[in-house]
Structures are given as C-alpha cells and as structure tokens.
Target: Cytochrome b5 reductase 4
Amino acid sequence: MQLMLYVLDLHLWRGFENICCLETLLGKQTRSKVALSNVPLKPGRSLMDWIRLTKSGKDLTGLKGRLIEVTEDELSKHNKKEDCWICIRGFVYNVTPYMEYHPGGEDELMKAAGTDGTDLFDQVHRWVNYESMLKECLVGRMAVKPIAAPKVLAEISSTVSEDKKQLNGVLPEKKVLASSSKDLSPSYDWFQTDSLIKIVIYTKQKDMNAELVIVDCQDKQLRGEIIMDDHSYLVEVDLDHAVSEDVAVNIAEKVGKVEIILNKKDNIHWKMLGQPREGHNTFIKRTDRGLFFRKCKLVSKTEVTHDTKLFCLMLPKGTHLCVPTGQHVYLKQIIAGTEVVKPYTPVLPFLPLDFQEPPRHDSVHMYLMIKIYSHGLFTQALDYLQIGDYISVSNPEGNFKKSQVQTSEDLLLLAGGTGFTPMVKLLNFALTEVSCLRTVKLIFFNKTEDDILWRSQLEQLALKDERFEVQFILSQPSKDWVGKQGKISSCLLSEFVKRSRRDSKVLICICGPAPFTEQGVQYLKDLGYSQEEIHAFTA
Ligand code: FAD
Ligand code: NAD
Model:
C-alpha cells in the first residue's frame, strides 16, 4: 500500500530520473521488496487519459461486453504483456490495455499476470478503487472463487440473551474475565433503556483512547471500529430502529471498555440491535479491512500561500473520528465518472503558541492544508468545491507511532513543501506532551519565500518557545534572499542535524517529495544515524 502512493505521484513527474527503491526509502518499515519503476509513463498515459479511454466506448476486454466464467487454467494462459489477465478478489480483469497507464510500470503489473494478484494488490494498492478504475476491463468471475469471503457471524439477536437487553451499566465482571481468559479478541454486548441504546465493546486492551475508536452512525447504519495495533475489531449493523443523528462515545481507558451511546428516535423496546453487516464482529488485520469513507461538509477554505489552502471539513454528527498524529486520511472524489482517491494529512487550524496545556481536541472539524497544482487532477477538482459541498473522507492510516517521540530528547523535522503537514501535529504534540524533549528543530525546504507555509507562525513559535528552532532553506530563492539556499544535501544536513548532547536520543522525521525523502534518508544514514532514529512519512 505504501508503494502505490509513490507510484501514483511518480508517474506524473516529468524527467523522473531516480530509481526509487522503496526498500531503501522505507527501511525496516518496508513490507515487500518491490522496487519502484524508473520508467516514466509516455505522454498521453496519465490517469486522466485512462479515464478518457474507459469512457470512449472502446471494447477493452475483447469480449464485446460479454462476461465469462474463467477457470484457473484459462487465467494462466493470459500471462503476456500483449494478453494479460489478472484476478482480484475473484474477479478477472483484462489489464492489457491498462499496461501503459499503470503508474508502477508494466513490469509491476506483469508480476500478477495470469494469476490471482489479490495479495500483491493489497500490499501496494489497497486504497485504490480498482473496481471503478478497471470496470471496463472486467472479463468475468473466477469459476472457482480463490478467496473465502469474510466469515459472517450469526444474527446479533441470537447472540444476545434476553436478560442482557435491559440497560444495566456493565456486564457482570466474571463474564468478562471468563471470556477474556478463553479468547483475547474483543467482544461486544448491547443494552437499552427507554431512550438509549448502549453498545459496549470490551477490547480487553489497556490504554484505549479516543484515537483508536472510530464510530459512524447514519441512516440506521452503525459502524464502530476499534484499532488495536495492526488489527481492527468491527461492530457493523443495520439498526433495528431509527436513532437520532448524534452519537456519544465513552472510553474507560484503563479497562479498555468502549461505550457507543445512541439516542432512540422513538421510545420503543428493541427486540434486537439489528442485522449484522458483512464485517460485523470480526477482528482482522487492518490492511484486510476495506477503507471506509463518510461524507464531510466543506465549511471553509482559506488561503495559506499563493497556491496552498486550508480546507476545513465538518464531520457528520454521527461520526467520532480523531486522526492520530502522523497519520493521513484519503479523500475521494468522482472525477469524470471515476472514483479517484488521494492521501492528505490533517493539520491543526493554526500552530498553538501556548504549549502549557495539551490543546482541547476539536472532534467536529478536520483541517487539511492542500497545495493546488495547476494541472493536478485531484486538487483542481478539490479547489472547485464550494462551501457547503461534500467530500468523502476515509479512516486514518499511517505507521507513525507517538511512542517514537515520547522518549526522544532531540526532535528534528525535515520538511519539503507540503511535507510540512505531518510536522504540524507532531510539533504540537512534542512541545506539549513530551517532557524529556530538549530541542525541536524544523528544517523547512521550499522553492521560494512565497511558498513557505505558516512562516510567521513558525517564527513566532521559535521566539516563544526556546526549545524550538526553525531554518528555512530555499531551492529557487530570489536575489534578495539572505537565508540558506540549496536542496537537501549531506553538507546542509551535517550543518543542521545535530544532537544536543553527544549521546542524546534523537528522532529525525522526514517528509516531502519522494526524491527529497529518499535522498534525505540516505544522507542521514551516511551521517551515521540509525534506521531507528529516522522516520520517513510515506503513504
Ligand atoms: P497530480 O495530478 O498527481 O499532479 C501532480 C503534479 O504533476 C502537479 O505538479 C501537476 O501540475 C503535474 N501534472 C499532472 N498531470 C500532468 C501532465 N499531464 N503533464 C504535466 N504535468 C502534469 N498534499 C497536500 O497538499 N497536503 C497534504 O496534506 C498531503 N498529504 C499527503 C500524504 C501522503 C501520505 C501522501 C503520499 C501525499 C500527500 N499529499 C499531500 C500529496 C497528495 O496526495 C497529492 O499527490 C497531491 O495533492 C497532488 O494531487 P493532484 O491529483 O492534484 O496532482
Ligand atoms: P515542492 O516541489 O514545492 O518542493 C519543495 C522542496 O522540496 C524544494 O524546494 C526542494 O528543496 C525539495 N525537492 C523538491 N523536489 C526535489 C527533488 N527532486 N530532489 C530533492 N529535493 C527536492 O514540493 P511540493 O509541491 O509542496 O510537494 C510536496 C510533496 O510532499 C508531494 O510530493 C507530496 O506527495 C509529499 N507529501 C507527502 C506526505 C506523506 O508522505 N505523508 C505528506 C505531505 C506531502
């Protein structure tokens, strides 16, 4: 999955001459040894060009619109560049016409030629809506379904005994203990009063917190997801009766109990919670869970620089979602009839200057700082959105862990352009909540002075907090610029990246254009920093 984002952006870089090896770039976080393509796409082979081709009415499968049943034997015959079929989740696509448009290059696609490419796809493309992208390439279904569908559990009503349907606070302690000794996966129960429905999830995990609980309740559908390391537990039901829009979430952090409280629209007795949906009561790897999107309203759009805007989105009333520091979300728009998904990293509405207390969490709004590219497919459409319009926003993802900062004494942030976005919450978290931090330094690479995001806020922060220092480095400065100039280099890094003490514990976070991050990681390693001391933000 991490790979795809690079891949998607890389194909649009004209003159892309770097061979980006993801393994080098991501170091120990890399899950697979897949090298990025160094072959730029030919002109006329962008995502938009692909969308146009799919709308042209051309027969892309060669089957004249027929759908067929494909045997494994048949699939394996279509394993050449000029005749390539791939199976994803039981559906077979003729990807031959897509070859030249694949951002990762033809060779990447060929790895799955004539086979079931589901695992490979999930590793690198999980967030891409292939059904929408490849719908004109659909050949048919596999005759023998290669992947078992997720287990759907029995109806909820049958799992709830009559005596537990009345709201009585919590389950008897001994029941929780008894079940936890047998099974470490979470479980849930539900209760009711005349006016409320309370769903209680026993995560059996200490240190539950609001960022690990994502709830969406809309139109009689309830989805409550609990994130537990790389796993996710889901309660997902079509509710038996209507509830009002607002949802409350209570978390007993120490015992890992999560309560989702819904308000009944009518004071009637519910015989059951509702009908389970596909993912209900499953505890599976996060990467195996499809991305969930909810529609958020654009409430404001303000200029940050000449080309970058701060978008404020309002979450629906029935949504409880706090994006953790260092994580991103995906935005989804339908562009020319095709779903296009891109990642963005939520920021704060501004840089708080008073770091005495942790900021109060605004659970209703999400702020995104987004650069609008003059030929950008997604950002142009985004900029077109009017106040009051809606856009789909996914659950958060990302592999940054706050614990990486919590033990650091020196924090160094290397940002290139909008690679500044993950640094915003990180900076705030570090200065507010990490007591052992002695120094925080942001080295911010931009093209020109006009491109520097939140420059005056950063300068004010540096004046206000003596632990914080900011250094701006420009790659295309005007002749009036008296500050540092250049691109990321060993020389620049050795000047600015230093430990405050010889043996101090350091964390260096880096984010920006892929070559910037790739080169930065390499220079840091050459300077003697270990893999554990470097975190590269990627998708
Ligand atoms: P694209 O269409 O991908 O175009 C990118 C560039 O190529 C632009 O310069 C465009 O002008 C040029 N281009 C496009 N088509 C052509 C063509 N045919 N010929 C010549 N040039 C062309 N970005 C942010 O602004 N804020 C964030 O918070 C943020 N967070 C991110 C988090 C992650 C994890 C990742 C991986 C990326 C993040 N990004 C962020 C980048 C974002 O996901 C998009 O890549 C970015 O917004 C560009 O999307 P686009 O579709 O508008 O541009
Ligand atoms: P930009 O083109 O304005 O460049 C900003 C600076 O980055 C430049 O001044 C230069 O110092 C450096 N840089 C640019 N290209 C370079 C290269 N080829 N080699 C070395 N250094 C280079 O940046 P932008 O348009 O704001 O783009 C920001 C990038 O950050 C995007 O590619 C975006 O996808 C990425 N981003 C990633 C994440 C993430 O992975 N979590 C989050 C936000 C942004």
Observations:
- The pocket of flavin-adenine dinucleotide (ligand 1) is lined by residues 5, 9, 12, 14, 46, 328, 342-345, 368-371, 373-379, 418, 421, 539 (CB under 6 Å).
